[in-house]
């Protein structure tokens, strides 16, 4: 028995059903402007500046047990990101929402990782003004991805606070605009692997924590949750965690968090759409607290997954 | 009459010939692991981590008047870059060289921009060790690209030293590993456009110049050339410029260059494969010196293009 059974038992049953499916989209479906195609057949033109300059923004909502979770939060953030990069979606928000819902329904996938990417397109930005570039949209739905999977969540993940790489600063690339320029994260991932940790967390090179490779970091100390404010993506999962904290009557703050705070925390969580709220029990090779998943992490975790059934923040999918 | 006629007259004649060609590869040819395809038909899998994480390195040599220029320098740098990212080319250096030469020959393109990209491939790095990832190679040959074209070279380009964006620091992403994570350059390009300049040059946020969007910057003061040492790509064109300087008996140094040095320079050049040695005559809206292309820039420029016929550093292509 593990606290994680609460969601994983149902998840396993749905995955088993999905694996029996002969639906050609059961392993993923994509849209790249024309027809829907099986994900593994989808392609991007070699000349797309989303590839040749990583000139794009993206977002990732998830579907859990047949319900889109906080899709509007992701669409809001995606619109803001595109706007900051002077990208214009080739499709309206209504069409985007309805295609995503349609793709999930067609795939039959009940627990899905959903990606939307808007690229600059085939014209190179310097040669053309933003408004002269026909931006392109790529959409993907695939079976749910776990940054930290069931087994790791039971006992907690291990992270390393990275030494040789600092988070790209906000003066270079805006981390609130979700992007795929993962150079610092890639270096962090390689360092974590060398140091025997599963995930990296990066600092800002100026005494503060920022985030990990595709996840926000949340620390709990004396019953209060804190998470770094600057130099990070404004995570939807992080927002959900603070909503859960509020509900549980816990104090919380998004603020500057010194690196040392990670080493003094009672509990630590990695939070991201791909996996949710994932407890961390080892930091730089040493146990956090007693090395067990903490009680507040478990309480937040349960609130987080309960919210995936809250009609106020979910859209149920009408599977065919 | 312009100093630029020296190369552009021949170039125009060759472009006119190319435009008459009915060769399906005359507008570009690509290799993505299988058959050669016309460039505009070439695609990358949507799931390639070269797209989904910009996890890749690349390099760009050029062909001029039917000769590959400094190809070995580019292959050396590309190998070093792949090694630093723990990427392993799926093809040997010999095969890479011979495919590039073959592709140029097949295309009939006499003046070409050639790109080689090695991506992480379909496996995500955190889930798999580098050695477990089958890395992929993409090759492209297309008609020569000009960061600064003939007309601009005649009178010199205009640059802006960017204010709101700093170059991604070396502690985040290694600029000596040629990469497509252009977030800072993209911001710089947008700022330059807003300020009425053609190109951005970025600082390191710590009082020193770095480079521009895909080009190194070279300043000439009192007959000496300087170019920033840290936080930049170790440009092959920059190397060619220093070789040319040496030949002309000019002093040169790759070193820390304060931002103010740009405003005190006698002459300024942007240097990159896509266009070569390109004089700059306007900085932040004001003329540099007398606002004319300077004599040392012209001398370096001529040496640079003469070197494109030097058998020591070129490989002539055997067009069919």
UniProtKB/TrEMBL annotation, chains A, B:
EC code(s) of this entry: 2.6.1.42
GO molecular function per UniProt: transaminase activity
Primary enzyme class: transferase
Recorded metabolic or biological pathway in which this protein acts: Amino-acid biosynthesis; L-isoleucine biosynthesis; L-isoleucine from 2-oxobutanoate: step 4/4; Amino-acid biosynthesis; L-valine biosynthesis; L-valine from pyruvate: step 4/4; Amino-acid biosynthesis; L-leucine biosynthesis; L-leucine from 3-methyl-2-oxobutanoate: step 4/4
Alphabetized UniProt keyword annotations: Amino-acid biosynthesis, Aminotransferase, Branched-chain amino acid biosynthesis, Transferase
Pfam families: Aminotran_4 (PF01063)
Catalytic activity from the UniProt record: L-isoleucine + 2-oxoglutarate = (S)-3-methyl-2-oxopentanoate + L-glutamate; L-leucine + 2-oxoglutarate = 4-methyl-2-oxopentanoate + L-glutamate; L-valine + 2-oxoglutarate = 3-methyl-2-oxobutanoate + L-glutamate
Protein's job: Acts on leucine, isoleucine and valine.
Family in the record: Belongs to the class-IV pyridoxal-phosphate-dependent aminotransferase family.
Protein name per the record: Probable branched-chain-amino-acid aminotransferase
Gene source species: Pseudogemmobacter lacusdianii
